[in-house]
Each structure stands twice: as structure tokens, then as C-alpha cells.
Amino acid sequence: MGAYILRRLLLIIPTLVGIMIINFALIQFVPGGPIEQILAQMDGGGDAFETIAGGGDAGIDTSDGESYAGSRGLPEDFIKELEVQFGFDKPAHIRFLNMMWDYIRFDFGESYFRSISVTDLVIEKLPVSITLGLWSTLIAYIISIPLGIRKAVRDGSSFDTWTSGVIIVAYAIPGFLFAILLLVLFAGGSYWKIFPLRGLTSEGFEDLSLLGQIGDYFWHIALPVIATTISSFATLTLLTKNSFLDEIRKQYVVTARAKGLSEGQVLYGHIFRNAMLLVIASFPSVFVGVFFGSSVIIENLFSLDGIGRLGFEAVVSRDYPVVFGTLFAFSLLGLIVGIISDLMYVFIDPRIDFESRKT
To answer: How confident is the model over 333-338, as a mean pLDDT?
Structure first.
């Protein structure tokens, strides 16, 4: 097992470098960098997107030799100072190598526009995203495992049929569309104002009792957690059902029944451990998938100040240290989670031997 883990750890290096190279190369072709953002704001154009689209006062005609849209009328020395400040006075490959050297040492630099280190910024926003990801994953498992087991036991029944229909509909509904529906129905849209529209806590949260704070916390996260859970619970339910169906048809189940064991003993004493191997071992990857997959849209819709919203705002403002720093950190996290998932398989079922596999 040690050799397998070592090989997987070594594979992280080229994979991570490849991810960073592709994204760094792509960003070079995206118009409206941080310098353009500053120039557009100074010229009253709002942001670089308006300048690029021709909607701002700065315009985009650079035929007179200007390097940046909106730079006309500004001293060339000022533009060069901005280039030095953001590191754009160096060739792209040098900037990339310097960036990777810093990232290897876990030095992610400082945000261009917030005057705070990227690490501190991520730590500040992380609790909100972890809240959504953790609760959504736990609720998905709490619903999916019993439902999947019942569907497997009653495979082909009317219960299995109508629940499959509900699951397919739930899976087909985009998370953001379901979130908007929840806002309209229950957050003061056109119907009832039962839940708050935004934020993770109410004003005066610190003055509430412990029970009051707990209640206020769950009151605020109810809608975003439900919106995040809707698609993941559908996938997990079908995964659980199929895992149990595969095990139910195996010979050892027939043997257990022939020995006179009750259905409960067969199901939970023999089938459960083998069937749940895939479901439980996938918990880390499911959590990361929920964490990254839905956080951007959900956090923006519910005005939650988390990692997803941070990443979206960083891309819009071309805050490259935040964009690349979070990309590096979470790509590394995702690759490590893949190894943890393999270790979970071995922990749950020691019969699995990854050493015999070729990676």
C-alpha cells in the first residue's frame, strides 16, 4: 500500500503543474486584466468589461499605439509603474515560474484589490462554504442510504417506480433554478416570507442565547442547504440502490438465506457492509464535489460570503493572485481527496489491494 500511495503522491506534481499551465495560458487571452480594471475605474468607465464592450467612456480604440484600453491621457510612467506593481513587466513564462515557486512554498501572495493575503482571505471565507458542503453532504447521505436500501429491497414495486420518478426530476432540476424557486416561495418573493433572504446570521446574533444562535444559524442555512442537496441526494440514492442490487444477487446471499437467516440478518449482517463500500468510500469526493460544484451560484443567490462568491468576484475583477492561489490550493486538495478515497476503500474492506493495480 505504501508504494501505491507514493506513486499517487508523485502523480500529483505533473497533474497540478498541468492544471496551472492550462489555466495560466488561457488567462493570457482573456481581455480586461487588472491594469485595465484600474484604468477603467479611473476613467469613469465602471469596469474593464464596459471598456472592452465599448460601453464605457474610455473606449477601446488602441490604434494610436496605446497598450491598454482606457489608457489615453495617462502618463506612460504611470502605466509602467502599474505593470511593475502587478508583475506584467516580465515575460509570461517568467511570471508563471515565479508564481509556481511561491505556490510550492505555499506563499499565495496578496490580493490586488483587497490589501489582504490570499491565505487570510480564503480562511475568512472558508467557514461559509464548509457549512454548505458539510451539511448538504450529511443530509444527502441521511436521505439517500435508507431510501436506496428500501428501493433495492422493493425493486420493481410501485414504491420503487414513483420514487425513481421523483429522483429523476430532482436530478434534472438545476441547483440554481431550484434555489430561485425557494427564494420566490419562502424568502419573501411572491408568496411567503418564512426564511431570511441573505446572510448566515441575523443582526444582533451575538446578543442571542446559545439556543437562539443555533436556531438562527439553521434558520439562515435551511434554504441554501436544501438547494445544494437536491441533485447530490438523487445521485447517491441510485448509487446505493444499485450497490445493494448487485450484492443481493450474489451467491453468498443465497447461501445465507438457505441457512435460515431472517431478511434483516441477511440485509444488515451480510449485504450492508459490501454494498456500502462504494457509497461510504466516496464520501470525501462527494463532499468536495458539493463544496465546489454548487457553491458559486448558491452563495451568490443567497448573498453568502464564501469561497464560491470570492472566486467569482476574483474572476470578474481579474484578481489573479486570488484566482490562481485558490485554483492551486483546491486542485491540490482535490487530488489529495482522491487518495483519501482509495484509503477509505481499504479501511472499509481490507481485502482490497491497490498494490496489485497499475497506476
So the answer is: 80
- In which residue are the cell numbers 436521505 written? 143
**What's the rounded Cα separation, in Å, for the pair 137 and 288?**
9
CA dist 270 and 303 (Å) reads 47
Q: How confident is the model at residue 203 (pLDDT cuts 50, 70, 90)?
A: confident
Q: What is the pLDDT of residue 136?
A: 84
Q: What's the Cα-to-Cα distance from 232 to each of 110, 126, 143, 154, rounded to whole Å? A: 35, 21, 10, 22
Compute the average pLDDT of residues 144-151. Answer: 88
Question: Could you give the dihedral angle defined by the CA atoms of residues 311, 90, 22 and 48, in that order, rounded to the nearest 10 degrees?
Answer: 40
pLDDT tens figures, 311-331: 888 888 888 888 888 888 888
Q: Is residue 332 pLDDT above 50, yes or no? A: yes
Query: How many CB atoms lie under 10 A from the CB of residue 68?
Result: 22
pLDDT tier for residue 355 given thresholds of 50, 70 and 90:
low
Q: Which residue has the cell 429523476?
A: 168
Residues 6 or more apart whose Cβ sits within 8 Å of residue 287: 133, 134, 137
Distance CA(199)–CA(221), nearest Å, equals 9
Please say whether the beta carbons of 197 and 183 come within 8 A: yes
Phi, psi of 174 (to 5 degrees): -60, 140
d(CA 15, CA 339): 14
Residues 6+ apart with CB under 8 A from 300: 308, 309, 312
Q: What angle do CA 137, 138, 143 make, to 5 degrees?
A: 100
Q: Is the pTM of this model over 0.85?
A: no
Write out the three cell numbers for 36: 485595465
Sign, CA dihedral 280-281-282-288, equals positive
For 108, 246, 275, the CA distances from 302, given in Å and listed in that order, are: 28, 40, 37
